[in-house]
Amino acid sequence: MTLTSTDPLWSVESRPQTERAVVEIPAPAAGFTRLRMTIAYDGSKFRGMAENDGVETVAGTIRAEIERCVEHPVVLSIAGRTDAGVHGWGQVISFDVDTDLVASGKGSPARLARSVNRQCVPGIVVRDAQLAAADFDARFSAIWRSYRYTIVNRPIPDPFLAATSWWVPQDLDIHALQLGCDALYGLHNFSSFCRRPKPNPVTGFEPSLMRRVHEASWHELGDGILRFDIRASSYCHQMVRSIVGTLIEMGRGFRRPGEMAGIIRAEDRSAAGGVAPPQGLCLWEVGY
């Protein structure tokens, strides 16, 4: 399948148009069926989502368990490459399984979900598993991803929230936090909030840092708990955590919310604030 978008800027949002304007999503090989899973995980137990030699990752752990069940190699496509320490609630993966195993039940979505949940809890849990269309890909079929970042804003930390939040004891101005979000909406070059990527070793192109933000807002949940929600087409490395770090500086009065537009226009990492710690961030949902 050739995947295109009704949005004429889609190709710019994730990579330069000259490098790649369409994505070819191959159908499963003959005799294989595509499956998809929605998974949740405690990121503190892993060195990120994507596989990396020599360290324990979410994708590596779940792939190994699926391969143990189906007894053939499996290649995972993942919706979001979360960093070490970042959690997931709505992460989506897709992969292909021998059709005969699916039909027999040995490789069925329900059977694989039970196996992963038995072997990988509490670090990883399969929340949903089902058959997928032949042209579905967890990464390239996604049209948006949403993240949540949790702040504990009170003088005394909470040991029960420490693993999933950032404790900020200083007073935060929620109005300044909200105002700082206004400039984030729309299509921008987010170089000021991202690590500069390496050029593609084959084409020589440097990946675009243009991203479209559809939503960015703060919510007061009570008892000093603040939550930042952001939904975008895709993200570059450390983008959300750098945005949160900059917004917290605005909430503490070190920067004015009106500076956000200038920080974006600068396209310079040194113009923005520090990177918020990973444990407060969670990949919440992926839209298709």
Give an overview of the whole structure:
- By secondary structure, the chain is of the alpha+beta class.
- It folds into 2 domains: 117 residues, Alpha-Beta Plaits (2-Layer Sandwich); 144 residues, 2-Layer Sandwich (Alpha-Beta Plaits), CATH 3.30.70.
- It is 22% helix and 27% strand.
- It is built from 7 helices and 12 strands.
- Strands 3, 4, 5, 6, 7, 8, 9, 10, 11 and 12 form a 10-stranded mixed β-sheet that branches.
- α5 crosses α6.
- The radius of gyration is 20 Å and the shape is globular.
- The two termini are 16 Å apart.
- Keywords: Isomerase, tRNA processing.
Strand content: 25-35%
CATH architecture of the largest domain: 2-Layer Sandwich
For the sheet with most strands, the description reads: 10 strands, mixed
Structural class: alpha+beta
When the domains are counted, the total is: 2
| Envelope shape | globular
User: If helices are DSSP runs of H or I spanning 4 or more residues, what is the number of helices?
Assistant: 7
Termini separation comes to: 16 Å
The overall average pLDDT, rounded, is: 92
The parts where pLDDT drops under 50 for at least 5 residues are 1-21
Tell me the helix content: 10-25%
CATH superfamily of the largest domain: Pseudouridine synthase I, catalytic domain, C-terminal subdomain
Beta-strand segment tally: 12
Computed CA radius of gyration, to the nearest angstrom: 20 Å
Following the backbone from N to C, one meets helices and strands in this order, namely: EHEEHEEHHEEEHEEEHHE
CATH fold assignment of the largest domain: Alpha-Beta Plaits
